[in-house]
Amino acid sequence: MLSSARLVPTTVRLVQPWICSPSRSFMDLKALLSSLNDFASLSFAESWDNVGLLVEPSPPHTVSTLFLTNDLTEEVMEEALQKKADLILSYHPPIFRPMKRITWKTWKERLVIRALENRVGIYSPHTAYDAVPQGVNHWLAKGLGTCTSRPIHPSKAPNHPTEGTHRVEFNVNHTQDLDKVMSALKGIGDVSVTSFSARYDDKEQTRISLNCTQKALMQVVAFLSKNSQLYQKTEILSLEKPLLLNTGMGRLCTLDESVSVEAMIERIKSHLKLTHLRLALGVGKTLESQIKVVALCAGSGNSVLQGVEADLYLTGEMSHHDLLDAASQGINVILCEHSNTERGFLADLQEMLVAHLENKINIILSETDRDPLRVV
Known about the structure:
The chain is α/β, with parallel strands linked by helices. It has helices spanning 29-39, 74-82, 107-117, 127-131, 136-141, 175-186, 214-226, 261-272, 302-305, 320-328, 345-356; strands at 27-28, 52-55, 62-63, 65-69, 87-90, 121-124, 147-150, 153-156, 166-172, 191-200, 203-212, 231-238, 243-249, 251-260, 278-280, 290-300, 312-317, 332-335, 362-365. The strands form 5 sheets. It has a 6-stranded mixed beta sheet. Strand 17, helix 10 and strand 18 form a beta-alpha-beta unit. The two termini are 40 Å apart.
């Protein structure tokens, strides 16, 4: 997802990317996927998620029309085919669990069949778009009013800042032992070694510092165990991947000015274009109670919001018992139904992708995509 994580236009890498005609432009599918990953890296998606290219027509495949939807249903697929889409970007992955067969029996299998028969690719970013700075949760927070926000669960960089996953440091007791130690360590793969002078108990020694992988660490420890007389003052450190600024799951938002629960309800309704939502007042709270801190998570917020201190939880859906737990702590909860907290982001996404892809392809929003639940 970006130079690491910014959901803004970045350099687009193209491989025979686009062909101009008087009326249409095209991008090669592989080039488009590379550019989408620059826009929002899939490495930020949750480990349990199924993101990326889910259905690929036989290559070469060019994309003239990119079709955006929150959920890919059969009705939405029909719309995408009518509008001559070459690639469908479905926020939710229509293929999540492994399929044992592709037949006409179930609706998800039929989606795959129709996509392949009509040479339409299917791509899903899902939680990668939740995590990035200008993603779904950032859009959801826009409805709260002026506020500052930070991720509830920050994302880590995909790579370590240095080579290896661990650092091992120790002092070599005697200069005559240094060559033996250095030779042995350099013989282990995936190890980078440096040394510098150190003083211990008023004696000059050599401090060895090495970075290594998890696999190489076992060999380093085995060598040190067999040669314990050669060294002292050993430290083994796990190298953490750095946290990324403004990137991660959920958002903890602090309003510039407090508002009542009632006023916040109206703001959220207006932002999400809803006539109704569900409210659970925290114990001891009323519609006039003030809201200063909001914890939010688009979609299903149970795991992200649990235990977070806030005046209000905002999400699409939450289990009954988690809702009771929050209310018992005096936390108000607003539920808007799962995809209602996500779908409105697609209009922002369309604008950002038009800029990021430099208007090289046609990008359209689904008109039939909607939340399956209605208040009746």
